[in-house]
Amino acid sequence: MTDRIVEIDDVSMLFNLSREKVDNLKEYVIRIMNGKHTTEQFWALRHVSLQIHKGESLGLVGLNGSGKSTLLKMIAGVLKPTKGRIEVRGSVAPLIELGAGFDLELTARENVFLNGAILGYSRTEMRESFDEIIAFSELYDFVDVPVKNFSSGMVARLGFSIATISRPDILIADEILGVGDMRFQKKCESRIKEIVDAGATVILVSHSIDSIKKLCSTAAWLHKGEMMQHGRADTVCQAYVQRMGS
Ligand SMILES: Nc1ncnc2c1ncn2[C@@H]1O[C@H](COP(=O)(O)OP(=O)(O)OP(=O)(O)O)[C@@H](O)[C@H]1O
Ligand SMILES: [Mg+2]
């Protein structure tokens, strides 16, 4: 038995990148008919290998566009690698786009049940967790308001509260500490810490090096789709800040 819960083995990801700026559909059709619409291919990840062990909390750092979200989406099973192999042994709670599964016409209450169903919970289970979800989000006064009237921070609070009510084997969080106000960010940090302490495996993408150092034992640094360094969080963060500026 191996305690590797995530194995990323020589993974590469190729995207088709549309280079030309086309302002409207008519122009687009004309360009296609003239054979002028070109797409370029772009490797968002190149030969990335990474092993994550059970109970590890790994921080993923790197500049904008370095491939962090792409890697998370592959671990969550949303994207398939062009080359290489990914194996995940456990249930994954992906906090990638908070509130992405919401129906904006429905109220917060209805969305809690809808999201719960998407995450595989029964109505009874969701009824039991409902008060805790609302308490954590602090959206008491907005329970029966349609989500379309929420601010983006409020949507994120509700999304975070629902997604972390479950106790997944692996929690994947993409830049979620940047949403919500300062006080809610602190609450999110504490909850992630609880989840880490309870023995879950956590993969966290954040531009806040402080949060990575606080919450993660290990870190990996991606640069232009390539793995620059992987090791202890403090060592990798220090190297990253030194090379890239803080
Ligand atoms: N669906 C897609 N189609 C084409 N290109 C894509 C797609 N998704 C991502 N890319 C490209 O892949 C590269 C890596 O993107 P990714 O979102 O993984 O970066 P990131 O490290 O998460 O950046 P950020 O810090 O800004 O969130 C970028 O150049 C991006 O333009
Ligand atoms: Mg990203």
Short description:
With 246 residues, the chain is an alpha/beta fold. The protein has helices at 25-33, 68-75, 108-118, 123-137, 152-163, 182-197, 209-215, 233-244, and strands at 4-18, 39-53, 57-61, 83-88, 92-95, 170-174, 201-205, 218-223, 226-232. Adenosine-5'-triphosphate binds next to strand 1 and helix 2.
SSE layout:
Layout: E1 4-18, H1 25-33, E2 39-53, E3 57-61, H2 68-75, E4 83-88, E5 92-95, H3 108-118, H4 123-137, H5 152-163, E6 170-174, H6 182-197, E7 201-205, H7 209-215, E8 218-223, E9 226-232, H8 233-244
Parallel strand pairs: 3-7, 3-8, 5-6, 6-7
Antiparallel strand pairs: 1-2, 1-4, 8-9
Helix pairs in contact: 3-4, 4-5
The structure holds adenosine-5'-triphosphate and magnesium ion.
Magnesium ion (MG) is lined by residues 68-69, 174.
Summary tags:
binds magnesium ion, 3-stranded antiparallel beta sheet, 2 domains, single chain, Rossmann fold, alpha/beta, 28% strand, 246 residues, binds adenosine-5'-triphosphate, 6-stranded mixed beta sheet
Q: Provide the β-strand percentage band.
A: 25-35%
Question: Which segments are poorly predicted (pLDDT under 50) over 5 or more consecutive residues?
Answer: none
Write down the CATH topology of the largest domain.
Rossmann fold
Q: How many domains make up the coordinates?
A: 2
Q: Given this structure, which CATH class of the largest domain is correct? A: Alpha Beta
The overall strand count is: 9
CA-based shape: globular
| CATH architecture title of the largest domain | 3-Layer(aba) Sandwich
The CATH homologous superfamily of the largest domain is named P-loop containing nucleotide triphosphate hydrolases
For the terminal residues, how far apart are their CA atoms?
A: 40 Å
Helix and strand composition category: alpha/beta
Give the integer mean of the pLDDT values. Answer: 88
From the alpha carbons, calculate the radius of gyration and give it in angstroms: 20 Å
